[in-house]
Amino acid sequence: ENLQFNFGGSCVRMDEKQHQFVDSCDCKDHDGGVVCDWDSLRMETDGFETTTTLNQSWVEDDVIYIYQQLEYENKDLKLNTENHIDYANRGLRGLPGAFISLDASKPWLIYWNINTISLLGGKISDHLKKKISSTLLSYQCKDTGGFGGGANQIANVASTYAAINALAVIEDEDAWENIDREKMTSFLRSIVNENGSVVMHKGGEIDIRAAYCGASVAKLLCLDVDAIFANVPQWLAQCQTYEGGFSSTPELEAHGGYTFCGMGAAILLNATHLIDVDMVLDWTAHRQMRLSGGFQGRTHKLVDGCYSFWVGAIFPMIAMVMGGDSLIDAGALIKYVLGCCQMPRGLRDKPKKMQDYYHTMYCLAGLGALKFSFPSIPLLADVQPTHPVHNISPHQLEKIQTFFKNKNL
Questions:
Q1: CB atoms inside a 10 Å sphere around CB 247
Q2: List 349, 357, 387, 390, catalytic entry
Q3: Can you count the helices (H) and strands (E) in the chain?
């Protein structure tokens, strides 16, 4: 049951059926060891040097150094569970002045940190639950419905999504009773345009993220998703690009976050028949980097730990639609997250970056999405599964939907 990584090369992948690691490229034996041809695993380019190709080459150099150091020092990978829980708890107790730039993102800061604790199985005290619920409910817009990014701010669907997810995570039924579902329905209707496009807030930008966030909120609160978003599926399908992924609006570039939102919204709106799921799978599979094992967000772009969830969670969503197992290389992703993204406290984007609350949660959520698909991987023993569509635990999803299921508006 104890998995062993061969850090002699990043070519090691995991056989999900046997839960063991096997070679995935042609490595050469050297004095009884294994030497990986690193250059064969680097990101392919068209022969044109750009800022991106240079940066990616430097990142790959850093990854190679880390993997070789781990082998040289004969270190086993492990998750610094308690340290990450402490990091998230500190973020909930107070933030330094530099965070004033995120004054309109307070529900997100709460969600990132409380979900980090939840993903690691940490205890959430009743006192903390009450503080979170009272804070978030103070951001609820009494006139228009929805939640703002802070007190006395206009409602936007991204902040609303973060607030509702955070309230789902703390499982506070008293707080749930104070969510104005009738006003929420009105707010969600107000952000859907006649052509099916969805805006982040009334008068705001059109964005596929708004479609996903709104549909997710409606599902959690057991609102009439089909009626609210009746003409959205056709617009959603137009956001799928020739590559197979989704863009923010039609005819733009496919991106990992937008593809997650497109696939998630298609599932929530029962619209997967309108998109080409095979092409989504092809695009998603090509985002996993051969050398590092992590994911990039766009073609020919750099690896980033947050895409462990934004791209990694697309695989189990596709499995929900098409059946079969997730096709993600789980071992390679675990190796990147624990080996390259993990700091003593918190997680980061990539080597030489600093940890932050956003990347901490989404790196761990990527592992949680793996746990959803592969519950028996020993290295994920401390990680709780996360539902790939909603990014809260399956238990939390079931509990909040059960609570609202039989309640009238």
A1: 19
A2: 349
A3: 17, 4
For the question of residue 212 being annotated catalytic, the response is no
Largest CA distance in the chain: 73
User: Choosing from 90, 130, 181, 301, which is the catalytic residue?
Assistant: 301
Integer Cα distance of 340 and 3 in angstroms: 18
Read off the pTM: 0.91
Exactly one of 36, 213, 306, 341 is catalytic; name it: 306
Catalytic residue status for 329: no
Residue 87 appears among annotated catalytic residues: no
Secondary structure letter of residue 405 according to DSSP: H
Using one digit for the tens of pLDDT, what is the confidence trace for 243-253?
999 999 999 99
User: Which residues, other chains included, contact 190 with Cβ-Cβ below 8 Å and sequence gap of 6+?
Assistant: 144, 202
- Catalytic annotation on 126? no
Evaluate if residue 284 carries a pLDDT over 60. yes
In a 3-state reduction of DSSP, which class is residue 253? coil
Q: Is 90 a catalytic residue?
A: no
Ramachandran class of 332: left when φ > 0, alpha when ψ lies in -120 to 50, beta otherwise: alpha
- One of 13, 335, 348, 359 is an active-site residue; which one? 359
